[in-house]
Known about the structure:
The structure holds two protein chains of two kinds.
Chain A: E1 2-9, E2 19-25, E3 30-35, E4 40-44, E5 50-55, E6 63-69, E7 73-78, E8 82-87, E9 92-98, E10 104-109, E11 115-120, E12 125-130, E13 135-140, E14 150-153, E15 159-163, E16 167-172, E17 178-183, E18 187-188, E19 191-192, E20 198-203, E21 208-213, E22 217-222, E23 227-233, E24 239-244, E25 250-255, E26 260-267, E27 275-283, E28 290-295, E29 299-304, E30 309-313, E31 328-330, E32 338-341, E33 346-350, E34 354-359, E35 362-363, H1 367-372, E36 378-379, E37 381-383, E38 386-392, E39 401-404, E40 410-414, E41 419-427, E42 430-435, E43 446-451, E44 457-462, E45 467-473, E46 476-483, E47 493-498, E48 504-509, E49 514-518, E50 523-527, E51 535-540, E52 546-551, E53 556-560, E54 565-566, H2 568-576, H3 580-583, E55 591-594, E56 601-605, E57 610-614, H4 637-643, E58 647-650, E59 656-663, E60 666-671, H5 674-680
Parallel strand pairs in A: 1-60
Antiparallel strand pairs in A: 2-3, 3-4, 4-5, 6-7, 7-8, 8-9, 10-11, 11-12, 12-13, 14-15, 15-16, 16-17, 18-19, 20-21, 21-22, 22-23, 24-25, 25-26, 26-27, 28-29, 29-30, 30-31, 32-33, 33-34, 34-38, 35-37, 39-40, 40-41, 41-42, 43-44, 44-45, 45-46, 47-48, 48-49, 49-50, 51-52, 52-53, 53-54, 55-56, 56-57, ...
Chain B: H1 2-10, E1 30-37, E2 42-47, E3 51-55, E4 66-69, E5 74-78, E6 86-89, E7 94-96, H2 97-102, E8 117-126, E9 129-138, E10 141-148, E11 153-160, E12 169-176, E13 180-187, E14 192-198, E15 208-211, E16 213-216, E17 229-234, E18 237-242, E19 251-256, E20 261-267, E21 272-279, E22 282-287, E23 290-295, H3 303-308, H4 331-336, H5 338-341, H6 362-372, H7 375-388, H8 394-411, H9 418-425, H10 436-444, H11 448-457, H12 463-475, H13 478-483, H14 494-500, H15 502-511, H16 524-531, H17 533-541, H18 547-558, H19 563-570, H20 575-592, H21 608-628, H22 633-671, E24 676-683
Parallel strand pairs in B: 11-15
Antiparallel strand pairs in B: 1-2, 2-3, 3-4, 5-6, 6-7, 8-9, 9-10, 10-11, 12-13, 13-14, 14-16, 17-18, 18-19, 19-20, 21-22, 22-23
Helix pairs in contact in B: 6-7, 6-8, 7-9, 9-11, 11-18, 12-18, 12-19, 19-21, 20-21
Amino acid sequence: xxxxxxxxxxxxxxxxxxxxxxxxxxxxxxxxxxxxxxxxxxxxxxxxxxxxxxxxxxxxxxxxxxxxxxxxxxxxxxxxxxxxxxxxxxxxxxxxxxxxxxxxxxxxxxxxxxxxxxxxxxxxxxxxxxxxxxxxxxxxxxxxxxxxxxxxxxxxxxxxxxxxxxxxxxxxxxxxxxxxxxxxxxxxxxxxxxxxxxxxxxxxxxxxxxxxxxxxxxxxxxxxxxxxxxxxxxxxxxxxxxxxxxxxxxxxxxxxxxxxxxxxxxxxxxxxxxxxxxxxxxxxxxxxxxxxxxxxxxxxxxxxxxxxxxxxxxxxxxxxxxxxxxxxxxxxxxxxxxxxxxxxxxxxxxxxxxxxxxxxxxxxxxxxxxxxxxxxxxxxxxxxxxxxxxxxxxxxxxxxxxxxxxxxxxxxxxxxxxxxxxxxxxxxxxxxxxxxxxxxxxxxxxxxxxxxxxxxxxxxxxxxxxxxxxxxxxxxxxxxxxxxxxxxxxxxxxxxxxxxxxxxxxxxxxxxxxxxxxxxxxxxxxxxxxxxxxxxxxxxxxxxxxxxxxxxxxxxxxxxxxxxxxxxxxxxxxxxxxxxxxxxxxxxxxxxxxxxxxxxxxxxxxxxxxxxxxxxxxxxxxxxxxxxxxxxxxxxxxxxxxxxxxxxxxxxxxxxxxxxxxxxxxxxxxxxxxxxxxxxxxxxxxxxxxxx
Amino acid sequence: xxxxxxxxxxxxxxxxxxxxxxxxxxxxxxxxxxxxxxxxxxxxxxxxxxxxxxxxxxxxxxxxxxxxxxxxxxxxxxxxxxxxxxxxxxxxxxxxxxxxxxxxxxxxxxxxxxxxxxxxxxxxxxxxxxxxxxxxxxxxxxxxxxxxxxxxxxxxxxxxxxxxxxxxxxxxxxxxxxxxxxxxxxxxxxxxxxxxxxxxxxxxxxxxxxxxxxxxxxxxxxxxxxxxxxxxxxxxxxxxxxxxxxxxxxxxxxxxxxxxxxxxxxxxxxxxxxxxxxxxxxxxxxxxxxxxxxxxxxxxxxxxxxxxxxxxxxxxxxxxxxxxxxxxxxxxxxxxxxxxxxxxxxxxxxxxxxxxxxxxxxxxxxxxxxxxxxxxxxxxxxxxxxxxxxxxxxxxxxxxxxxxxxxxxxxxxxxxxxxxxxxxxxxxxxxxxxxxxxxxxxxxxxxxxxxxxxxxxxxxxxxxxxxxxxxxxxxxxxxxxxxxxxxxxxxxxxxxxxxxxxxxxxxxxxxxxxxxxxxxxxxxxxxxxxxxxxxxxxxxxxxxxxxxxxxxxxxxxxxxxxxxxxxxxxxxxxxxxxxxxxxxxxxxxxxxxxxxxxxxxxxxxxxxxxxxxxxxxxxxxxxxxxxxxxxxxxxxxxxxxxxxxxxxxxxxxxxxxxxxxxxxxxxxxxxxxxxxxxxxxxxx
Lengths: 692, 684
């Protein structure tokens, strides 16, 4: 099949931000996730848990609460005291509104979705009316003594429960006055703690309020009388989050010890109608605090400081025992944070607030050595990798996207409000950087940046839906053209691909099909037929100009741009179907590339495997072994040829964030071992395993 | 439900939304509540005593619906789901509705005598057979008639009112279980009585009398002006309508019969008409001018629930001696002299007493035997009774028998029916709290066999008694033990093994917990030990107590206890006995550690945890005494070494954990080839 020299890179020091909030939307089966750096991500659970949208973070915007309202409108609130609404089409922030109550700790949308409630630092609970294009302050509830950390509406919308420090208040929504105040016991394992923080409350339709607090308790209260009904001590540390199923027959809580407990309403005895809440299942999928939980109809969702987003399906709710019933752990973003300059062997790493440029090392081993080297051998390094550049952004905004040109002399990146373009000069070992000033006004913010293969053109997908083409020559640039979005659509384009000859540009949004533009004639060439699942990666093959598209349901299509139709190979694949193990992978393909000398090869990778598809070989059926980690030893060539199939898979590198071909015989693989991430997290709560 | 709705609408109470309403012409009087024929969905009502009307939901005018004039006056029409309705005539005759409609003018016979008036009736379905019961009254005497429809047998019973002859029964209710109809009646003295009527009569020809027994005392005021009513909710609960005190307002109260407690009560200030129904977890009653529906679900009757709601203050009139059954009073007396005593006392469960009892029941015979006969005779009688086995009052009879026997034991010091008691204990129905005297007497008689049996069978022996047993087990002489017949189930014959396993033993000494005591530089005590290593091996391999004593001690080890209550009693045991017991426990421990599973051989041996707990307990209680005793020195040293070895095991485990962690780290480092490398990849 082929041998490669692989630059195995583990110095990409990327640490995802901890998860702060999750909000599940039942209508669209989507999950919104906010991280401690203010980033908000949208996962489409129907599309194989693909992270289809994201809103970049902001240093001063620590999100403390996230909720869906009015169907599919997404709101967040945070410690800067602002309530924000996100535009899910244009992928920007619609507006931010100060609630004038100091930092906001909690937010809840009314059951009808028309009202929004926020709990503030100053002890006030504020009610906002959601209007079609904004929110409007309506009134304050009775102010409490200390900050409101949690809120929950009664399903009828008449009362709310608010968790504060040491007590829970019940408000009447009509009058805005507190009806009950329930004092939470400060006792913690017999010792009186200074304060008991009510981290979460949930109001059930029968009037029961469930609270979770910093003393490790889950408590049930009767809101009619304001009395404690039942108390479960479940942890030695804080219980930080709670989420109730829509049917109110089960709920989930997350603790600072990383444990998630499932509670269910079960009959006291079999076939008795009397039911009680019972702690049924503990799950330990996290090493650190579980800051937030959500309860979808079929799964428990949890996230926390250890940056994993965990989907734990409820086996009793899963009808078909297929791969959807498996546990899912999402750690890495479903987009590429790395770009590569093939010519100069440079890697550009994108972090939240800075970029790093590295030059790969080299080995003295010549081709001869390579031939004699065995699979898995480490070659002696003649030159180590160099850290060339550390480029810090100005301002508090996170970087949305970045790119280095194939020639290595241009770097472009963008934040929400500014677009930056730098020119790099290499003089022997010295490197100099010069910013290209006077960017035009329309290039304010980009969702995706791409350089053409010859580095003379820059393609920018702006968040208004337009695609800009910029001509680069010497140290200057010239705006060539802007493809405006079709009238009526505002959908932002998030993926770009350009053909190596520079004639074709493909752009894909989150839901609509892929558009292919003719760069020479500056017009829309064709649109690839729309497919149900979002595009996760695409690339245009050299010479043939075949567009290869990977979707989140793990399907891969090949579309001939000149012929405006799917290629024969693609049709064959669709007819026969992919191997079931291929379809069951749970991370999307994030990068596709091609071999310049072997036109039949497609190189693609996800977080756990790297694959070369050889279109000349027969496709595997479900009976053949898809992945064979062991090299063929004693088998004759005949058997080998018979069992050989189109998918050549390697699972050596994982988690794999980036893989590309530098030249015919050289690959670069960027790994980010989980242990390295854990090592950079704060230490978890120490638990005694055994001993005297 | 429909029947109730009917009544409700016909009573022209219209503050709720009626489903339908029909009325008879002026001048006509409805003389019988309407019912729903569940088989056809039609309603049936009688007006002017003889005119039967049948209609359904579509009919509007009651005048135009089906009409049948009967030849006799109707008392009630009765309908339950699953069978056709029955018509009960005032003269006591019963007809099926269909049969009646076939020939409305058929002749209706007279069943009850002149001046006898039907007071109340109820219709059941028992094993798919309809059963009708009705109560009649004549000059203050009450009669119950049970009509079986499968056999067409009508049985008449006379209800004996007991001492209080001039009381009037105000309300009835009945529930049915497998064999009996339990008829509850609310008397004018305010008490609820229960009468059990057999469904299958012994002799239908004879006029039989039924005894009633007091169920609840003074639930309503005796001289209530308005109607009082009673209805059974389930087997443990009754609802009573009426005023609890002469002066107070009327009240709906739900009582738990099992525990004689008031579950809940609700005042009805507007007065009631004395009508109360219970249907599908709802109580229906007339309150003032409206029909009040109260949802009420009977909780499972539990002592805690009953205690939590005990309402003494509400019932100053009730000077009940005790709300609870006193197990101490022999129930046998109650059974024996039921007729005279019964209405005075509150009993939990009664038997029906059919007037002509051909022979004395075996239980009664047994009780009289206990009082007089010789031990031998009693034994025979008990065996006879046990052979009969599970009669419904088996538990109570056993309890009574034991109390009777024990009382006689106390009275006559020479009387000790040992075999009898053993048999009774083995019935598994006794417990310590039921007959505390039993163990007391056994302790006095030093009957170790009986004590062992008690320890094995009783779940609730107090720690002081356990300790007293332990004292006897340790102090009793070996020779007197020889004579006893102790259950040896829990003891394995260690003596056989000890010779055989001598080699093994030595090996385990070294292997024990991965720690070699020889290597341990345990200071001078060790040297002392090493002086006579021969002795040591002997000591540890041979059981320090004889087998029978071992069996007795094992019974102690198996018994349940609470540390805090046990510790003070352990201090009373003499030091040499403590040492002996410790030696035995240490021996058991050594035996335990001989095999990998840390268990002892045998059928029901003490577990390692039990052994260790008892060692700790004994040392805790008696350390200061034991430490002074020269003969206990070796034992203490052994125990000390044991603990020391345990600690070193744990420290070894910790070391292993750390080593494993380091190994893991090394392994990771091996895999982790630095931040950057260039490797060869070959794809197949």
